[in-house]
Amino acid sequence: MSTSDKLIQMVIAVVIFYAVIAVILLVTQRLRSRSGERIQAAAFLGPSLLLIGVGLLYPAIVTVWQSFHGAQTFDPPWVGLDNYKDLFTDKQQLTVLRNTLLWVVLTPILSTGIGLVYAVLVDRARFEKFAKALMFLPIAISMVAASIIWKFVYAYRSNEQDQIGLLNQVLVWLHLDTFNFLLEDPWNTFFLIVILVWIQSGFAMTLLSASIKGIPDDIVEAARLDGVGGWKLFRHITVPSIRPSLIVVLTTITIATLKVFDIVQTATGGNFNTSVLAYEFYRQNFVSGNQGLATTIAVVIFLLVTPVVIYNIRQMRKLEGR
Amino acid sequence: MSAADPTTPTTAAPVSAAAAAREGLTGRIASAIAVVIAILWTIPTAGLFISSFRPEADVKSNGWWNVFTDPSFTLKNYQDAFSGGSSNTGLSTNVINSIVITIPAVLIPISLATLAAYAFAWMKFKGRDVLFVAVFALQIVPIQVTLVPLLSLYVDPPFNLMPLAGRDAPAGGLYELWLSHTIFALPVAIFLLHNFMREIPGELIESARVDGAGHVQIFSRIMLPLMMPAIAAFGIFQFLWVWNDLLVALVFSSPEVQPLTVKLVNLVGERGQDWQLLASGAFISLVIPLVVFLSLQRYFVRGLLAGSVKG
């Protein structure tokens, strides 16, 4: 397809879509009665509910069903909980679970910690806006681009050669041996985590900074008059005041971390024992062709995410209620 | 005592001065830490950015920090990345693909979600609350859970419908991508826009109804203009999600319509040592989202604070 073909197809799709919407609105426009309102509601909601039902609900149910079946794509046999057993006993899968655990524990804590410290440090500073923008920008770029940026920082060459990766150059300057950051298991997982921390800290910083600015001035003033300052102010006034926001940030980053796929795919391709659940799902289904195990992994991600999301939404409600 | 007189003011002064000094010192340490973090956050990007302008031979032989002692720059990397240079790896097709994928994948879910959110917020019908909670709850479904069955629906749909994937797919398989992105965005979008819509005072709607306006008029004349900031906020999020997405694109896009992210990942796999190419490619991919982001940052932060973060 040529460029103009694609653009024409895009315009056609958008025009058709809005034409359908316009027809729906015009047809239901004249309805005023009670039963008319029911028809209008169906017209307004119909397209969305149909898409959600067919595209989310039905596939989710099929996935759960498939997770109890074998690897084959066509007519796989019922295997009960075998896939789940594999996931929690197979040596390779245990590494995947270990890595996922590392990601989920470290990423939210580090991103939130760094974001919070930075938000406090630049609060009311002279270049606050600019300083915040620096940490905020990685949010806008893709995880693929972020991974390329960091892969370059980690680039490895042996000791005798000129280094092109900044981190190994720092090691050389310190008269240390160069290190293959993305190859050496288990440390490589930590260096991948750094990439996500680099991305998510900006998100944490923005939410927490807004929250810090919401702390009433008189509370801070009163504390200062009592001689509370610096670290104690941070520990006893700032952190407790923004506790609900902290929880929302921590849980939101946890959810994002459980689904991280792009970074592993770009930085190591899942090699060198760096795979995580969300990556293993893709590999099992589209590379190894093991649909049973892939859907099982998807279900496990679902089960892990659900309690965090519920807790997250509850906290968000509380935050809004205040 | 004559000696005592001068000591009183001087002892008083050092105390406050010490306090000031301590404040100043923590202030200075604080700024130092802030500066260090800011530098750590900027250097990786700066390094790749500088490298994207260095000649291939330089990029491959020494680090980008050498430009400060031995500067040499070129635009050849960008030309090569765009047109493919000696080998056939041009990114220009993928830029078009990303644009063609993203625009409908932003417009369609936002429009549908605005309609649905209006119905949930201001129309009365049986089962409204149950339906809304169901849509709200579906936010928690990770897209991984839906990908495999969704793909088989596209490849082999029931009721003799037209397959949206495969060689004969309409628009080269673009419909798969538009639909998938729409589906994945809807629950969050409906939930958020509903929250915004409930904040609009009910009297406004009531008085319009008394004046004889129907739902369609209220929706298009009153709601849409009032909702624009919220729609803009969600629009930026959806734009960034779709433009930066890798997983949905890897699963659903045929080679002909691969977006930039997929192309970049392939480049990493095939030409992992060609840093000059990866660097310029990465920067081509992030120019558009960065411009959109910076020009509409106000709405973005508002959306972030309202909780529009797709799980």
TrEMBL record, chain A:
The record's section on Pfam families has:
BPD_transp_1
Q: Which PROSITE patterns does the annotation name?
A: ABC_TM1
Q: Does the keyword Cell membrane apply?
A: yes
For this protein, the record's SUPFAM superfamilies field holds: MetI-like
The ABC transmembrane type-1 domain sits at: 97-312
Alphabetical list of CDD domains matching this protein = TM_PBP2
Q: Which domain of life is it from?
A: Bacteria
Q: Which family does it belong to?
A: Belongs to the binding-protein-dependent transport system permease family.
Protein name listed in UniProt: Sugar ABC transporter permease
Automatic annotation (TrEMBL), chain B:
List, alphabetically, the SUPFAM superfamilies matched. MetI-like
The listed locations are: Cell membrane
Q: Pfam families under this entry?
A: BPD_transp_1 (PF00528)
Main location (coarse class):
membrane
Q: What sequence ranges are listed for the domain ABC transmembrane type-1?
A: 95-296
How is this protein positioned relative to the membrane? Multi-pass membrane protein
Which keywords does UniProt give here? Cell membrane, Membrane, Transmembrane, Transmembrane helix, Transport
Query: Where is the chain membrane-spanning?
Result: 29-50, 95-118, 130-155, 175-197, 218-243, 275-296
Q: Which family does it belong to?
A: Belongs to the binding-protein-dependent transport system permease family.
The protein here is known as: Carbohydrate ABC transporter permease
User: What organism is listed for this UniProt entry?
Assistant: Nocardioides mangrovi
